[in-house]
Design brief:
3 helices, 25% strand, Dihydroorotase, alpha+beta, elongated, signal, 119 residues
Length: 119
Amino acid sequence: MKKYILLVALMLSTLGLFAQSEKIADVKVGDVFEIGKLQTNTYKNIQLPKLNIIKKRGGITLDLNLEGSIVVVTGIKSKKDGTTIVKLKRQDGTRFFRTHKIITANINGALQSGELQAK
């Protein structure tokens, strides 16, 4: 009887592990995404530079409207905690806020929240 209980417990824990290791998207260098509309005041999964850094570099902070920008994945890095961080560059070659060529984003979170949309 103990063997059956142990077997059932092992099977349930294995199923639980597979449910948490769900992978959302297979992203590779060169994939194209569009920055989606904000539902809140800030992007949570796209890491943008702070406003004071943009001002110090001579950038325009009024150009915070990134909605609809087409971006291309230029690099991918997986962290130990399971998150995947991608580097994004504008497809047309212009800079973000006239100061930064590349921004980073947590791709799984950004796709789930709608901050990034596959193009």
